[in-house]
Amino acid sequence: MNRIRLLPEQVANQIAAGEVVERPASVVKELVENSLDAQAGRLTVEIHAGGRSLIRVTDDGTGMSRDDALLCLERHATSKIQRAEDLSAISTMGFRGEALPSIASVSRFTLTTREREPAAAEGTEIIVNGGKIGAVKTCGSAPGTSIEVRQLFFNLPARRKFMRTEETESAHIQHYLTLAALAYPGVALDFIKDGRMVWQLPAVRHEDRLAALRERWRGLRGGETNLLAVEFTGQLPVVREEGEGLEGEVETAPSQPLRVWGLIGAPGVSRNSRAEQNVFVNRRPVENRGINYALLEGCHTMLMKDRYPVCCLFLEVNPAEVDVNIHPAKREVKFHRERAVRQLLAQAVRETLLNYHTPVKPAPPRPVAEITPPAPLPEPHPEFPKLAPLPDLPAITAPSTPVAVEPPPPSSIRNPQSAIRNPPPPTAAPLLQVPLRLIGVVGRLYVVLESDRGMVLLDQHAAHERVLFEQMMRRLEENATAPSQRLLLPETMELPVRDAQFLREQLATLARLGVGLSEFGERTFLLDALPPFVKTNDPRQFVLSLVDELKAAGQAVNTLRLGEHTVAKTVCRHSVKANDPLARPELENLIEDLRHCAMPYTCPHGRPTLIEMNFRELEKKFGRTQ
Ligand code: ADP
Ligand code: MG
Asked: What whole-number distance in Å separates Cα of residue 446 and Cα of residue 461?
């Protein structure tokens, strides 16, 4: 008995819709992509009830002839590719020819279109209900295309149930529209939600695409985010990556350029989710684990745990290098040279962030120990805990430390009004490149400074960690061994088997950082030296918590061999203690040391070392402006 039958087209379309049309935002995405592919200069997106009752996308693009309008509703009907080979050189958003028939099969669908060139005398309107064509008429309409999708999933109750609240569905739509708006600043975009205008973004006409992107970002976000420009070109090397090709066979591919450009938050600017991490490959918004990883790697030691960069980055690469056809909604992509792309992206991010601050030319190096608080302060400050300004303030501007603490330009400090009237532009000079004046310390930890732009707070603990970390890393790079102080009484410690095994793998790195640990039996270790800056009364505890933290870090990065930087970072954390009262010269030294750092704005764990509150923000807080 023959059991196999071809599915009716309507059923096939509904099945395809299951993949392509996940939720209202998928409809918006497909329609907007079509409008962008049709060279639209202006787009209007309207939704009602989170897109559940209505989605309407109107463009002024090429429009379609009557025949094309009928054809575009057929499965696998597309004007964008013709041959299989075209798949490796896709420059449009769409290519699968699936979206319109899928959407039309699960909604009440109206397509109105009029060809722009050659200018058609009239337009065509096609009404489709759950995949069945209801009417085809001529109509008057503006050149371009308008597609209306009402009652999504009206004929699929099971799918309808899966839609979330209106707010959630609107949020997904708005998120996609943000991505489209960022990728196409030259296209005007209106977004109307439940009859209310949410955005009215004008077309940005800028020769310079970075400037255009900045302007579009401001249009979307309203506020000022401190964003740095990324401009990077690297080469994908001529190598075969692991897992590609047959064993023993060396495949090479011609070297290809990879361009990365866009904006990324300055050090210290981050979010607790990936919501503002916008990455595009050949202008297509993408999700890709490798890219996520590369971004975190690029921001290394500048992002706190569980924080994510704020960015809008465009990767440009030969379309043949990337497979965009691995996900029905084309959300994910696969790079043929994934590892190389990852490395170059991380490098692009890292170089941008590092260039933000130009370290002051190294002063004659001072030994590490010197920057730490000497245990008994030379002149005790009895009133330190409750202290505001330091007793001998005027001396701060003395020429002894001209780099660290310069006198402020008289006009702005003496007359803050002038600074208020001229707030710093969003791309103001990095903080450590403007003069800072020391005011005092609050809570024994936060150093209060003044610049000609406003107030600056420095977390002396975080700053200190950064300084130590960079000094240690420099030593490691120069292959020098860190100074180490022998303990008067070496200590032995016994560890559980697994910890012992773990610690054994880190011994060499720890030794280079000045932690003298040696094996003293199967599970026993002997601790006989510590770096001089480690101030601890309980060296045993120091080592135990070091092991715990390194293990935790190891799980997070999922590697057995921890990088030297992870070890150094952890040693720093355990070396610096908060609440050590620092005398004025030590604070000055600390600031100067910070200026010498390559990345002074965060501690090695990514927490900020400095917070700025400019006059504009102060004004706001005091209600002097709105
Ligand atoms: P794809 O975008 O993958 O080609 P779609 O089903 O989304 O498939 O669209 C089918 C075809 O309909 C497109 O290739 C295009 O020629 C045409 N089309 C769709 N939307 C528009 C539009 N807004 N303006 C002009 N042509 C359109
Ligand atoms: Mg399409």
From this structure: 8
